[in-house]
Amino acid sequence: MQPRGLRRRIAAAAASLLLAAAGVALTTGPASAHDQLISTNPADGSTLATLPAQVTLTFGELVLNTNGGTQVKVTDSTGKTINAGPTVVKDNVVSQGVAGGASGTVTVLWRVVSEDGHPVSGQFSFTVQGAGATIAPVPTGTPSPTPAPAPASTSSPVLWVIGGIVLVVVVVIVIAVLVTRRRPAETESSDDRES
């Protein structure tokens, strides 16, 4: 009756390999979407009476603060850079100081490294009226009129890995329990054959 025991072991090993492969496949989660710009201050397309002291960009996820990965360049209507000080990253908010008395169209070019490690870039602009001009008040903290971003995946690759590891551990425990239960029965039947 050894062939039957051998078949059981081969079947158990095959099932273990199949379940382990399924666990590995499950740990590869869906690709996470790159970070998206949620809002800017001043808002894209807004008109202001004076140049603000800084521009602020708010993203949907954490922005990585890597060497040279985060860049914000603010230029006036002549193309002159009007940045003041370093770009500051705090969680999902990026700020850049602005200097000078620029008027006209101000363009903000930005590049950040999203939480998944990929660079994301874009630009927005706003207008600064010259001295003495009257403009209708425009709120500066509203999001730019862009389509709503697709909902970000709330699953994290870490959760997929942990789930896969838990699955593999459970499978190994089940197989170990089944093998240990069968061994005493096999031992008893072999003892019966000897007598």
UniProtKB/TrEMBL annotation:
Gene3D superfamilies: 2.60.40.1220. The keyword Kinase does not apply. The keyword ATP-binding does not apply. Residues 34-128 form the CopC domain. It comes from the Bacteria. This is CopC domain-containing protein. The chain crosses the membrane at residues 158-179. Pfam families: CopC. Keywords: Copper, Membrane, Metal-binding, Signal, Transmembrane, Transmembrane helix. It is found in: Cell envelope. GO terms for cellular component: cell envelope; periplasmic space; plasma membrane. GO terms for molecular function: copper ion binding. Residues 1-33 form the signal peptide. InterPro entries: CopC/D, CopC_dom, Cu-Rt/internalin_Ig-like, Ig_E-set. GO terms for biological process: copper ion transport; response to copper ion.
